[in-house]
Amino acid sequence: MTTLSFDTFDQPEVRFPRGVVKANGVPVVGWKSVEVNNNGYFQADTFRVAFAIAGLPSGYGLDYWSSTVPIQIEVMVGLLGAGDGQVTPSDLTSLILGNVDQVDVDLARGTIEASGRDRTADFIDAKTSNYYPTQTSSEIAALLAANHGLQTQITDTTTQVGDYYKTDSKVKTTGDGVRETTEWNLLTYLAQFEGFDVFVQGNTLHFEPTASDSAQPYNVTVQQGQAGLLINAEDLHLSRNLTLAKDVIVTVISFNQKKGAVFKSTAKAQKADRSQAQGGQGQAYLFRFPNMDQQQVTAKAQQLVRQITLQERLINFTSPADLALTARARISLSGTGSGWDQSYFVDEIERKLSFDPPAFSMSVRGKNHSPQSTVLA
């Protein structure tokens, strides 16, 4: 097992990050650095692991990396105190589990780099022309997960998905079949109709309502010190999109085939302080979805206007890494005395564990609309 330690970076006590890299379930020593990228929006998490060829154990040399298929990598990390001593994988947290997509060998430098995606890739790489019109979204998610040997954490739904896309050109029957897509596109398509989040964590497919804001947030704070601003991060960057600071207007229209009627709803993210609203008529968006009723188009319009305005304010920071922040958590920024003091959704977390300082660091990007914006039906 590989053990690392590093200095405090102004933390209250010395931290000792431990890392284990498994290849097809077996811990493999000889790695030099790992990078894991976790994201919060319908995409595969990714990893990159660099090994020193001279440090690899017997059986894991060049021949292993040139001929073994598949190679499943798991990166496990833990933060322990000075007196915790030797640890086992059971003491650590799994950051990612997935198959290697590419192996790169640099013989001159004596390194092997393995990169890949988490098990979201199982669905991304699987093509399908079956849209399962007589089943519900949750039944489809469970079926596809079982096909890939995954466990599930799924919230049951009740509507047969054929009601969603009978008139949708993306899935309409044409000639000898329906258009081919990927299983992941199908899952994300259904998740958006249900207002759900869909992601893979380890060996589990999650298909469930988006996490609420009620959980304890991850706090980033700014304070005024004698020598200037004090931030509990190594750096902090804030940005704002003034185009999206305008009113955002979303209209959803749906022709319901069963009811023989058209339903329409408009939602608006409107500046609470009209003096700060940008000039013009605002940003208008029109979306069409098949076979919704009035309640569904209203909910969809409100969901979409929130998604669009998420990009108005952004936060980026780097810091010594920890394991408390996840891609489904919220970030709370305070102390700037400005409109940036608010809650943010995590967009991306990139963690790096290395023998070179900083030993364990992370870069984080968050996004959210201004708290001055309100959604009006």
Describe this structure in words.
This protein is mainly beta. The protein has 3 domains: 165 residues, Pnp Oxidase, Chain A, CATH 2.30.110; 80 residues; 62 residues. The chain is built from 6 helices and 24 strands. β14 and β15 form a beta hairpin. α3 runs antiparallel to α5.
List keywords for this structure.
mainly beta, four-stranded mixed β-sheet, disordered N terminus, Pnp Oxidase, Chain A, single chain, 377 residues, 3 domains, 15-stranded mixed β-sheet, 6 helices
Shape: flat
Corresponding CATH architecture of the largest domain: Roll
Largest sheet: 15 strands, mixed
Helix content: 10-25%
- Average pLDDT, rounded to a whole number, is 84
Q: Tell me which oligomeric state these chains represent.
A: single chain
Number of domains: 3
The CATH topology of the largest domain comes to: Pnp Oxidase, Chain A
**Order of H and E elements:** EEEEEHEEEHEHEHEHEEEEEEEEHEEEEE
Strand-pairing-aware structural class: mainly beta
Our count of helices gives 6
What proportion strand? 35-45%
The top level CATH class name of the largest domain: Mainly Beta
Q: Give the N-terminus to C-terminus distance in angstroms.
A: 56 Å
* E-strand count: 24
Extract low-pLDDT stretches: 1-12, 173-177, 272-279
Radius of gyration: 24 Å
List the helices and strands and how they pair.
Elements: E1 2-3, E2 16-23, E3 26-27, E4 31-39, E5 46-52, H1 62-67, E6 72-80, E7 93-106, E8 111-117, H2 120-124, E9 127-128, H3 137-147, E10 151-154, H4 162-165, E11 181-182, H5 183-194, E12 196-201, E13 204-209, E14 218-225, E15 228-231, E16 235-240, E17 248-256, E18 261-271, E19 283-288, H6 294-309, E20 313-320, E21 330-334, E22 343-354, E23 360-368, E24 373-376
Parallel strand pairs: 10-13, 14-21, 17-19
Antiparallel strand pairs: 1-2, 2-3, 2-6, 4-5, 4-22, 5-8, 6-7, 7-8, 9-11, 12-13, 14-15, 16-20, 17-18, 18-24, 20-23, 21-22, 22-23
Helix pairs in contact: 3-5
